[in-house]
Specification:
Pseudouridine synthase, four-stranded antiparallel sheet, globular
Length: 297
Amino acid sequence: MNVLLKVEDSHMRIDKYLSDNTSYSREMITKMLKEGYILVNNIKVKPSYQVKENDEISLDESYKGHDDILPTEMEIPIVYEDEHLMVIDKPSGLVVHPGNGHYDNTLVNGLKYYTTSLSDIGGDERVGIVHRLDKDTSGLMLVAKTNEAHLILADDFKHKRVKREYVALLIGNFPSSTATIDAPIGRSKKNFNKMEVMSGGKSARTHLKVLKRYDGYTLVSLILDTGRTHQIRVHLSYIGYPIYNDPVYQNKKTTAFGQFLHSRHLEFIHPITKEKMSFDSDIPSEFQEFLNNLEIK
């Protein structure tokens, strides 16, 4: 249920204004703002936003808090596991952690059912989650089982000591064998669910290498220097070669499988044993079958 409030006072932070005028705590309001359950004039704002007279605040009361993140039985493809961490092969369509309307059947729900040994640095909504993949991006992901491992792995990601390689199918015949896309990314002001290349955005750099060419499509390998939200999808759409079947960043009808983007290689130093770890993952069957059909044409 949506509740619409019209502001009569002004010059007050929205988190304070709503905590004074609703039954929600200021902490809960901050979370709802962050996840898009509260909009001002149909726009997502920060908790520090100063409300103005006649602002219209839309509040979605379907928001669920931490108590609703329940363990859920599901099959989690585990590639490797020890007492410190897990490497999983995330299927396309699986949301990594609760938020923005997805509070059931996420990877976190499944992890909580599978084991109680998960890092809790990110809070109950992100137990074990060191990094994430988009809902429809498949492939290798690290999960931390202890806080010690989580802190070390997070620092490794920050300082680019974790090597990740993606494979994607682009729409169009990409003209060069290699390329580097260096363009800042920020959240779209028109649609808060989308990111876009913009002046003043956060720096983002993507390296591309052509693996195979098809009629009207190009299979590429991608390595990131940064890890911005939707980075690969935004960059490739920006240069005119969007990822095939991307429901957000290409202007064509898509199937439920989502974008043909797969995290196929993961390499890192084990945070505790210091052993070099390296894993590879085959692209999903739907992805492979589409490539096979392109070969036949």
